[in-house]
Every structure is written in C-alpha cells, then in structure tokens.
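Sequence in, structure out. Go.
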Amino acid sequence: MSDKPPLRLGTRRSRLAMAQSGQVAEAVSQVTGRPVELVEITTYGDTSREHLAQIGGTGVFVTALRDALLSGEVDFAVHSLKDLPTTQPEELALAAVPLREDPRDVIVARDALKFTDLPRGARIGTGSPRRTAQLNAYARSHGLDIETVPIRGNVDTRIGYIHDGELDAVVLAAAGLSRIGRLDEVTDFLSVDTILPAPGQGALAIECVADNASLIAALGELDDPFTRVAVTAERSLLAALEAGCSAPVGALADLPPLSAPLERGDPQADGQIVKEMRLRGVVGTTDGTRMVQLSTTGPVPETYDQATALGRELASEMLAQGAAGLMGERAQ
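Output:
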C-alpha cells in the first residue's frame, strides 16, 4: 500500500449506500494502491419525511455530497446514478460509471407471490411515480385489480410493511437488493417489457472535482464504456423531456440480442459482438390511463454526443405524441 494519505470517499449513510460505496472503495484501492476511507454524509433526501415526488426528487440525495467535494471535505463521491440531476456541474467530473448491475425492478410479496398472482385489490407499495404509472397501466391492460400505495424508507422499512400485513407487495430495484445481499427475498423479477426502469437504474456514478486530472485518470480505470453510453442515452432522454428524476419516466438502453439471455442469467450471452443499441422510453399518468411508450434502435454510440443524440431523438418523438402532458409538473 502507498504511504500517501487515504483517499476520502463521500457516501450517504444508508445501508445500501454504504454497501455500494464499500465495493467501490475496494476497487479504487486496488487501482490506486491507496487506502480509501468512507466519509458518511447526511443528505436532505435522507432526513426529509416527505415523498420524493413532493420534494422534487432531483438532487435531494446528491447536493450534500457535491458540496463536500467542492469544499475539499472528500476526494470523490459515489452516487446511485439514477439520483443524479441530468445537468453535470462544470466544476465536477463524472470520472467513472462502473459496470451496471441488473437494471430491473423486482417484487417482494407476501407468501412468495408473483406480481400476476397477487389477489384482487392487492396493495403494492412504491415511492416512485414511474413505477406507479407502469404498474397501473400493466394492471389495467391485463385485467388485474391493484392499489398502489406511496411509501418511503429504506429496504428494511419497505419490506417491513409486508411482514406487518400493511401491504401485499413492494417494488424495489434488483441492483439495490443485490448489493446488500438480499436478492433471495425477491418473489418476482419484473421484465423490462412490463416495467421500464428509471434512467440509469442499476448503475453507479463516481464523481470528483474536475481539476484533479490524476484522480480522474485513476477512477477512470473503473469505467465501463458500454454502461456509460447506455446511461448517457437514457439520461439524455430524461433531460430532453425536461423531467426530473422523480417524474414518471422510464428508460433503458440495451443490446437486444443479449438482453433476454442476460435476464435469464445465461452466461452464453457475454462476449458476443453486438453492433446495435435499443433505447426504450415510457412516460405516463400515474393512474396508468395514458402512456406514451416508444423505442429506437441505432448503432452502439461510440461518443458522448452520439449517445445524447439517441436520447434526444427518442424524446422528441415522445413529445410529438403528447408525452409532456402526462408528466404533471415539468421540472424547471
């Protein structure tokens, strides 16, 4: 190990944030040869009891970490990428987007039930307008009778609602449960054909100040180029819709020939050369009555500009079909 002082990694205090930051810390330590210490930072999103849709969603888990970076309190920070506002501050660099975990949403339900086996009138908890809109739309089109219930809190709190009998099921991100070692509690993986994830879901963002070239280069060792272009396209779609991360927008960029085998966990899917990327987007009213869902396929982007262009093109098609009117308040 180096005799240089430890690198300070800024992280939220939640169990999930600490788990994913711990994994990044280990990887950064390996590539830099320096120890990494976690610096716990409380964000507004962690202390507010309001629903994310009410407090705006955008940046509520990020601002305090970015302030700590800019003040020199920490050297770099780890975010869940879906929490990042779509505009990147000039003073900060998105130094790495590591390989993405499973982007899907999952159900944790009582009695090990699958989504389609839930009883009539089942109460499903989620804090996300995006999930609410798509769950209600799916239920409506498949003759299911569900009630979506807004909830907040960490994984323990949310799953606790099922054990207490208050809810029949909750919807969570597969990646988060994977990172804290609780995938065995999942009762159903929701195909992205049923529910498109949040833009950037399953990916992490590693950020540092923009003028620290040596740290940017070191952190860049953890970057996964395909994950980066995929989430860039998804976030470009979100930005072009002028929506914040609490808006009912789902997006996923993937490689069609690989996506189904990878969802099934088929190792044969890895290592194939794929030349096309598909970007799908959805926006809808939270009651699920009106949805705009479109997709586009093009060459796998090789640059940031190509990835953002793909997102913007799909967003303009969605706006032409009335997407703006389905989002409620548009982010200012």
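Check: The first strand starts at residue 7 and ends at 11. Confidence is low (pLDDT under 50) at residues 51-57.
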